[in-house]
Amino acid sequence: MIIIMERNATLENVQAVTNLLESHGFKVLVHTGEIYTVINALGDKTTLSANRIEALDGVKQIKFIREPFRLASRDRQSEDTVIEFENGVKIGGANRPVFMVGPCSVEDYDGLLQVAKAAKELGCQFLRGGAFKPRTSPYDFDGLGEVALKYLADAKKETGLLVVTELMDSSDLDMVCEYADIIQIGARNMQNFKLLKAVGKCSKPVILKRGAASTIKEFLLAAEHIMYNGNEKVILCERGLKSFDNSYTRNLLDISAIPVIKKYSHLPIIVDPSHGTGQRYLIEPMAKAGLVAGADGVMVEVHHNPACALSDGKQSLSIEQFKQVFAKLNRLIDTLHLENTVSEFCE
Length: 347
Description:
The chain has 2 domains: 2-63, Phospho-2-dehydro-3-deoxyheptonate aldolase, domain 1 (Alpha-Beta Plaits), CATH 3.30.70; 83-346, TIM Barrel. 36% of the residues lie in helices and 17% in strands. The protein has helices spanning 11-23, 50-54, 109-122, 146-159, 173-179, 193-200, 216-228, 257-264, 273-277, 283-293, 319-346, and strands spanning 2-5, 27-32, 37-42, 59-63, 83-84, 90-91, 98-102, 126-128, 162-166, 182-185, 206-209, 234-238, 269-271, 297-301. The strands form 3 sheets. The chain has an 8-stranded parallel β-sheet with strand order 13-12-11-10-9-8-7-14. A 4-stranded antiparallel β-sheet has the order 2-3-1-4. Strands 5-6 form a two-stranded antiparallel ribbon. α4 (146-159) links the parallel β8 (126-128) and β9. α3 packs parallel to α4 and α10 (283-293) runs parallel beside α11 (319-346). The longest helix has 28 residues, at 319-346.
């Protein structure tokens, strides 16, 4: 780490910082400039909190050379993490982007099965659906609970699709694990550290959605909590940020987050244009943008009858609409993979 001292810092201030660092095993180099004194400290920063250094008189700023998300960082692992499932489906790396489709909330089995069968016929890999729904209003439909989980499991038996569903409370973890192939942590719970710790101790892959007002560093540190507790099968999901302009979109879908995360982290990342925009007509162009930016998959809300959906009907595609969008996205994926193959061949 690098500690920058205040311009009026005394020799005693500098010595106090040096003594603290050396007492924790750091190798210390002091550079005295015309205006500032800079202290380079080489060592294990986990042995000494930044707060203790900042509390010393004369300290202006601390800069870290390594990223604070150690397990999720490319400094630790240069190659992409690839998460593989029992049926051979893979997420991440050079593998073909996956599709996770289904209704925002599981409302009934017949409607869910219609979507699942259509998704299977098209070649999608995952069926997503909410059993427990965090809602802004207490009067809105908040899911069927375990009944919905059973519907998802039955649809999996019928189609072979893997199941993705959201976990809201650590007390439901065992029940959700019984039915789901991937546990989703929603945007509202991105920094629910007790919940992150709980899923970190289970063996199921976890989709972690970015919080609506979270920085990329906070996003990756939330993933770090899961990995630190033992579960390294984390899939990140960009799903949009709160913006000052919500006249036309629900959120501001941060496409740039995808290549940024690809640069600094080895974890796979998918994009959710349904929540990211809140408008069904924007799902196709923003899904394309996400794929071009390097997303490892797309999560799309698909409902058998969006006009009657109990949640998020406005941002859900009908089955026929999804078939059209899926065909276009698949053509784009074919083109992108062909370009990558040609590029690798030329190299």
